[in-house]
Design a protein that fits this description.
The chain is α/β, with parallel strands linked by helices and 500 residues long. 28% of the residues lie in helices and 23% in strands. It has two domains: 295 residues, 3-Layer(bba) Sandwich (FAD/NAD(P)-binding domain); 186 residues, FAD/NAD(P)-binding domain. Strands 1, 2, 3, 4, 5, 6, 17, 18 and 21 form a nine-stranded mixed beta sheet that branches. It has a five-stranded parallel beta sheet with strand order 7-16-8-9-12. Strands 13-14-15 form a three-stranded antiparallel beta sheet, with no helix packed on it. Strand 19 and strand 20 form a beta hairpin. Helix 1 packs parallel to helix 11, helix 5 crosses helix 10 and helix 11 runs parallel beside helix 13. The radius of gyration is 24 Å and the shape is globular. It starts with a strand and ends with a strand. The relative contact order is 0.14.
Length: 500
């Protein structure tokens, strides 16, 4: 099978993948690259999810790219607007023609002798198998499974005569007008769905086993509105972006240092937006500290407004069984339902589900150690782009994609064939993602580990990462470089250069 060669192969055409391509276009003109996308359109998450009200769970001044201002009025943007922003960015930077749709990557094998990856993809439209080779492989496919969300089985659900729907596969023809809807879940998807469905439904109940922290945020950033009226977008955008970065960082750090204080503050803000006498301690009092899981943002308090109107309600309980006409709870209460939406989360799928091998040896991600949250020990010329869990995804993706350009420049300048991270000498056993969310906890066993110190520790701190990834040294104790002349000799050999 003949193979086409590119300098960089990018897997995924969502926010991260398009960003990676734009960084190459902007910082390394002349670098050959291709973007492989398994679906028929770009946009990733923002093309896949089509449920009512789909929107960002971060402000667009930080979820947007650092190199292209977000110019829409809304700071918390809907899915179609975000998808359009990604499409416009790809077109403006000349990336559109480099995307190859219907290409699902199934395997990647590194050859030290050739200093290149051989990547095998399946054409999802024709079933054909395609191979490409590349010098650098950047996986920007996110960390969840696109074809299947997490869907637990419920006792008695086969008896239910209504319609069961998962947000990841929302039916285009679903009409909830005048119907009773139960949304199972309490995360970002559930709090988005409830107020939107309540506009047509007879009543919507958010059924949660455990409450989440929910904060209201203006849909339009007041500072952005003022600055846009007085300054060019290229000046106003970074100011607002940094204001939001610093604000979110401060809230996260305060949550870690003074969780009781932040819990009390969120509770007071929540109680002010609920009807008088509302049972805040039952429905808005999570058993965990703030930022042990992501905070849920609601633009302009739309969820609270819906609760005040009485078109929606919250039930905090466990499901005993489904019935023909709804759900019976462990408390004995029955929730009548014509439609049940299972907003029960995601299934994680590291590196898009592809298999990796280095010189014929399969790579087990769980036995590797993360390097700077972007590469993994023992795997050369490979990036796994994973955004922040405590801030906007794109903040970290931008840093990683920029760092790849720095590394590629470094390889060229010094005649290196490859860059290979090594594990810390003392070992590592910290989880890759420090988040208590169920979708993370279910999948930690299949992810790389973290070390106890930099560069093997994922900071989850944009300010520290900016210093490390934009200005920090490329040669450190966690990275080795292999010269072109002896590219076939890797870890543990005399031809390898390790920087102490």
């Amino acid at each position: 099978m003949s193979s086409e060669h590119v300098d960089v192969l990018i897997v995924g055409a969502g926010l991260s993948g398009i960003g990676a391509a734009c960084h190459l276009e902007n910082r390394r003109p002349g670098t050959s690259y291709a973007v492989l996308e398994s679906r028929a359109a770009l946009g990733g998450t923002w093309d896949l999810f089509r449920y009512p009200g789909i929107r960002s769970d971060s402000d667009m001044f930080t979820l947007g790219y650092s190199f292209r201002p977000w110019n829409e009025a809304e700071s918390i943007a809907d899915g179609p607007s975000i998808r359009r922003y990604i499409e416009d960015t790809a077109r403006e930077y000349g990336v559109t023609d480099k995307i190859r749709y219907h290409h699902r990557v199934v395997s990647a094998e590194w050859s030290s002798a050739d200093a290149r990856w051989t990547v095998t993809a399946e054409r999802t439209d024709t079933g054909a198998t395609v191979q490409l080779t590349c010098t650098w492989l950047s996986v920007c496919s996110g960390y969840y499974r696109y074809d299947e969300g997490f869907r637990p089985r419920f006792q008695g659900e086969e008896r239910f005569r209504g319609q069961l729907v998962h947000p990841q596969h929302w039916p285009e023809d679903l009409d909830v007008t005048g119907r009773k809807v139960v949304v199972i879940g309490s995360g970002a998807t559930a709090v988005t769905l409830v107020p939107n469905l309540a506009e047509q439904a007879e009543h919507v109940t958010m059924l949660q086993r455990t409450p989440s922290y929910i904060m209201s945020l203006p849909s339009r950033d007041p500072l952005a509105q003022v600055l846009r009226a007085k300054l060019p977008a290229t000046v106003a955008y970074p100011i607002v972006r940094w204001k939001n970065v610093l604000t979110s960082t401060a809230i996260f750090q305060l949550s870690r240092r003074r969780p009781a204080l932040v819990r009390s503050l969120i509770r007071r803000l929540t109680a002010k937006q609920l009807p008088a006498g509302y049972d805040v301690d039952t429905h808005f009092n999570p058993p965990y500290d703030p930022w042990d899981q992501r905070l849920c943002l609601v633009p302009d308090g739309d969820l609270f407004r819906t609760l005040r109107r009485g078109t929606a309600s919250i039930a905090t309980d466990r499901i005993r069984t489904f019935t023909e006409h709804g759900i019976e709870l462990e408390s004995g209460r029955h929730l009548d339902a014509d439609v049940v939406v299972t907003a029960t989360g995601l299934n994680l799928l590291p590196v898009g589900g592809m298999t990796l091998a280095v010189d014929g040896r399969p790579v087990d991600l769980s036995e590797t150690v993360s390097y700077k949250g972007m590469m993994i020990s023992g795997v050369p010329n490979f990036t796994m782009v994973v955004g922040y869990t405590n801030a906007s995804w794109t903040l970290k993706a931008d840093l990683v994609n920029g760092y790849v350009c720095r590394l590629l420049d470094h390889l060229d300048a010094h005649g290196y064939a490859s860059a290979t991270p090594v594990a810390p000498p003392e070992g590592a056993d910290a989880p890759f993602l420090d988040l208590a969310a169920g979708y993370v906890q279910r999948s930690l066993g299949g992810l790389p580990k973290q070390g106890s110190r930099a560069p093997w520790r994922l900071h989850q701190n944009y300010l520290r990462d900016v210093a490390m990834m934009r200005r920090g040294p490329l040669e450190d104790q966690g990275m080795t470089f292999q010269p072109r002349a002896t590219a076939g000799v890797l870890s543990g050999t005399v031809a390898e250069r390790t920087v102490a």
